[in-house]
Amino acid sequence: MRLQGPLWTIFRYEIAMLLRDTRTLLIAVVAPLVLFPLFIFVTNRVDEREEQRLEEAVYSYAVVGSEAEWARMRVERALLGDTVEGRSRIRFAERREEDPDAALQSGDLELVVESFTGDEYRALLEAERDSAMAALADSAAARQEAAQLPPEPVPPVPARALRLRYRADSDFSRRARDRLADRLREDREAERDSLFMARGFPVPVEEVIPVEFENVASPQKEGGAVLGLILTPALLLLMLTGGSIVAVDAISGEKERGTLETLLTTAASRGEIVWAKLLAVIVVGLAVAAVNVANLSVYLGLGLLDLPPSLAIDLDPGRIIVLFLLFVPLAVVVAAALLLLSGVSKSYREYQIYFFPVLLVFILPAAAPVLPGMELRSAIALVPIAGLAVAVREMLLGPVDLLFTALAFLTTTTSAIWLALLTERTLSNERLISRQELDEADLLGGAALFPRHVLRWFLGLWVVFFIVSLWFGDSLGVRGQILVNLVGIFLGGSLFLIHRYDLPVRETLSLRMPHPAAWLAALVGAPSALILGMGLAELVDAYLFPVPEAMLEAFAESLTEPEMGMWQLLLFLSIMPGVLEEIAFRGVLLSGVRKRMGPWRTALVVGAVFGFFHVSLFRILPTAWLGVILAGVVLLSGSLLPAILWHLLNNALAIVPGMKGWVPEDFEPSGWIVAASAAGLAFSFWLLWTTRPDTTPSPTRGRARASAGPDPVRESEPLEPSRA
Questions:
Q1: What is residue 209's three-state secondary structure?
Q2: Tens digits of per-residue pLDDT, 165-213?
Q3: CA-based, 20 to 30 A from 263: which of 421, 526, 605, 722?
Q4: What is the pTM (predicted TM-score) of this model?
Q5: 294, 252, 333, 268: which is closest to 13 by C-alpha?
Q6: d(CA 169, CA 62)
Q7: Which residues touch 534 (CB under 8 Å, ≥6 apart)?
Q8: HEC profile for 602-662?
């Protein structure tokens, strides 16, 4: 690639057009210059206004209950603590209301202070306990079992008690609750201490095991921790929006205007055209990075703005330069992805439809620093974009880990080079000429178009799956979610695609009897792959995404319901997923992907899609591992049936031994078990490989038919030239 000749001419033309485009200049240059100081200004103003509103507000409350006079006295005494020097004054005013609850709901009151006698408070606690137990016991069997247990004792209660009722949807009501609760707590502690001293406590109570708090983090580190979480996602968002304007106009726009054909008639090759346009988009990304890093150095380094304490960051010139260099491969990745998207899109409208999923694909790994316990010195350094985002955060925090920062940089750089080459190769050889260009699939339609559209359809299914789980998961329950996801989304989506593209069912789903050895391979391979998958999950937990034990326990509990028997567990968590997920992923998805990719890429893509449908981050890699294995089973055996058996065995083995107590909860496979599992998995795939069906066409005839179709003259033998 040379920066001269046609490539350099086209590049200069693209930059000239870019400079005339006010939208790009506004988003890529002006917006970063304005947004950072605007963010600082708004933050300071919000803090000032919040403090002013806190000081000027008068919080109204009402006192109700059988011990109202006592409660009123306690509140008034607690509020006297606001006269302490150095504490902001908070003004409360009592109001007498005929219906305090209605006034609280309408916003006329911020708080209702409810008082109880000891007996009333005990009855309240017992009622809340019984209500909680009834909510948990949601079946007749569970209620009967709970009724046979002795009731949980209610702890001792005081002679009087208070309860603060507030509205969580009101800032004023929440603030009044917090402030009054703090004052009441301080008053209670002061009364307790005075009682201790009156009874002859030998030393002041505050001297008994004194606890001191000291923040050892410097303001610079605190500021780096805050900015490090948002800098990469914000910068990436600006790169995507600014670069998108250039990319969509570079190819999709020229397709609609019909000017791309004119460009293709010049002396420039398709590769030179692609590289020139790619360089133009990269320039926008680098401009965004340069402007934002310059913002940091100017506003933070020179102190031109009064920064809030959370942004007191110290950046030396060397760190600023390294920070900019880290963003260079990020700009290349964004540019290549956007240009590739523009090339495969036939119009502005189609580009806009695809842009939002691409935006999510970039933003999600850039948010890796937000994850708890995420450190650069882990496998996250090998994840493109995510490792770079964590490296940026740690650079803003303090000492730089040169080794893992360089590793994160190299990983993203490698991804950038690969994606740039993929963009150049794809747009040089495929549908680049014009939006009117039609290939054979466009003319045939139906099943011929399905391989081109299958991934976008499964992206749509993922969006539906995610929204249903997010919005309706709790209300549906475990069995409801399984029925909706497996039957409604996976099976329903698969049948829709088969009908939509008129796909042959038997061929699409690979519904054919395999070689008998495939069944043995499934029986041996399922437990072997499961144990290796458990090891992979442990590696993810140890080095990539540490998961708290409480989260794992909560996830395990969310998979079952108390009254689900063993047969229901096997039906909902083993048999149904084994059949319906295989129909969707190793049936419909694999049949579309394999027609455009080789076997290795097909297995990896199908496995990755399968993993992302299990949206919990700590499950994606182990589930993708199973997806790749099952895709390999179908590709080698030529049948979906062994994969179904393998899948349901995998799920059953993950459920039954633990439920029956055959293995301890903290079971970890030893080294020899892992080695035996690896040997078992290798044996299974050796069986599949040696017994795979022979679907290879004859070399001459197969190539001739694939390229030219059947010969209308003589199909039985190749044509030969006439002899004299």
A1: coil
A2: 999 888 888 888 888 888 888 888 888 888 888 877 777 777 777 777 7
A3: 421
A4: 0.60
A5: 268
A6: 19
A7: 622, 669
A8: HHHHHHHHHHHCCCCHHHHHHHHHHHHHHHHHHHHHCCCHHHHHHHHHHHHHHHHHHHHCC
